[in-house]
Amino acid sequence: MDSHEEQQCLPILDFSREKLVPGTSHWITIRDKVRRAMEEQGWFVAEFNGVTSDIREDLLTGMKEMYDLPYEIKIKNENHKVSHGYMTMVVEDYRIHESLGIDYATEHQACKDFSKLLWPQGNDPFSETTHKYATAVAELEQRVMRMLYESYGMDEKKHLASHSESTRYLLRMLSYR
């Protein structure tokens, strides 16, 4: 494999919780790979066991129910921020894409409010699942940020606290036909 092909490889990094303990050799190896991937490609794929197959399946089932709702219900997901509310792409009367977003999805109440917006009686299983999913992914993001701060020799506790205070999480759910 030549160096050009090596640069095109998709970085896949193991973020398994039981293996990823700060200060261990695995942590340091993954931390250095995160930094290299971000500097060279701007992204990577995380193997992550923080989202169980049950959560993933429940989320996909709930999203199917959500996308089966009438258009008039889905457009209630309004948000003045671009790409945060309901969006759709229709070409020649064929819906190609739909998406809805839960702003502040790591806050349990935001997920409950979203489910009440779409289902007037609420949908507790859906709000629980979206909250669990968003929280797990946010924890992964925080771990990545900690690694980046550490790899640059920055005070990760100080910067991570500042980053966390200024971060809000949008859970954007997409459907392609």
Low-confidence stretches: 1-6
Number of helices: 7
Gyration radius (Cα, Å) is 19 Å
The proportion of residues in beta strands is 15-25%
DSSP strand count: 5
Mean pLDDT over all positions? 89
Number of self-contained structural domains: 2
Helix fraction bin:
40-55%
Class computed from helices, strands and strand pairing: alpha+beta
Shape descriptor reads: elongated
Query: What is the CA-CA span between the terminal residues?
Result: 37 Å
InterPro entries: DIOX_N, IPNS-like_sf, Iron_ascorbate_oxido_reductase
Protein name: Probable 2-oxoglutarate-dependent dioxygenase AOP1
Domain Non-haem dioxygenase N-terminal: 10-94
Organism: Camelina sativa (False flax)
